[in-house]
Amino acid sequence: MRRSYTFLLRPTARQAAALTACLEDHRQLYNAALEHHRTAYAKAGVSIRYGDQSADLKHIRSGDPGGQGRWSFSSQQATLRRLDKAFAAFFDRVKAGRTPGFPRFKGRGRFDTVTWPKDGDGCRWDSQPEHPTATLVRLQGVGHVRVHRHRPVKGRVKTISVKREGNRWYVILSCDDVPAQPLPATGAAAGIDLGVASLVTTSDDEHLANPRHLAATADRLADAQRDLARKKRGSQRRRKAVARVAALHAQVRRQRLDHAHKAALALVAAYDVIVHEDLRIANMTRSASGTIERPGRNVAAKSGLNRSILDAGWGVFLTILSYKAESAGRELIAVNPADTSRTCARCGHCAKENRLTQAAFRCTACGHAAHADVNAAVNILRAGLALREAAEAA
């Protein structure tokens, strides 16, 4: 199986400056390639392809040995492929009739990752294995950078990426052939209902808390954004204010990720089969503002709900749960969420009136009363087991 590892980099001041220059040169390469696309089509109606721009790299590097020529050729090809994927996604959206969203030029704050597609080609993980105390990664044009490796790396390192988050630098390894780590069978199965009050509610009436990390940081974040709004564009004070806002968002992101890992691990350790709703989170968090001609209703309430859903991090949690279940040899089943919260788990009666409040469920047909999320989790489990039995019978 494939797995990614993220480690904090500890570059020297000179290496940090080199990493910043590497990121900037790759950003300029991306923007120049995008301008090439735009100009060729506007002036001559010609579509530029990745192969054409990759062939031009040799001339670009030879003409700028102190700039573009310093960095790995393969990493620059990866940046051009990134633009090519952006155009491919644009045309897919056009064909599907969705809002296309033409690829945009990247500002300094919107280009934060450089990728080396192959370990050993312009980069080398664990470049000094004989070092007694430290792990280092070698990056062309930067040198041997110290890595805070807090856990072992398993499998074969395939690609290496460097990412900047605020004032921090991270190295991200994508590894193939990572061995699975199956857990002992428990013989238990559970349905899980994702929510805002509790991140996860199981069919066994267990509730995993939703810490609401963004809400807990809202006051500090509001102060930082208010301070940023007062700063003059281009000033040193504004740059510091931007870094402060970015650091707070990064802290919330790390806290959310850490909690998702712990919650997913607890479920994988306890159950052999886990059934969850096949949620379309992007659709659920779509704005309710509408248009000028047809304005939306309850926009403020919908905005608050969207913010709560995104703060809970359902998508992050389900992604982590998926790969942890695969590694542990557990079975993960996704079911249609329609009416799971309105259907009585005892008699099967489905009605909107069954759910009295966010937390209370009482069936209007048989009188069954339960926590609304537990009732939904039981329905989710039954639907998942039914799908499993149908698949086995087929």
From TrEMBL:
Keywords: DNA recombination, DNA-binding, Metal-binding, Transposition, Zinc. Residues 1-43 form the Transposase putative helix-turn-helix domain. GO terms for biological process: DNA recombination; transposition. GO terms for molecular function: DNA binding; metal ion binding. InterPro entries: Cas12f1-like_TNB, RNA-guided_DNA_endo/Transpos, Transposase, Transposase_put_HTH. Residues 181-287 form the Probable transposase IS891/IS1136/IS1341 domain. NCBIfam families: guided_TnpB, IS200/IS605 family accessory protein TnpB-like domain. PANTHER family: RNA-GUIDED DNA ENDONUCLEASE RV2885C-RELATED, TRANSPOSASE. In the N-terminal section; belongs to the transposase 2 family. In the C-terminal section; belongs to the transposase 35 family. This is Transposase. The lineage of its organism: Bacteria, Bacillati, Actinomycetota, Actinomycetes, Streptosporangiales.
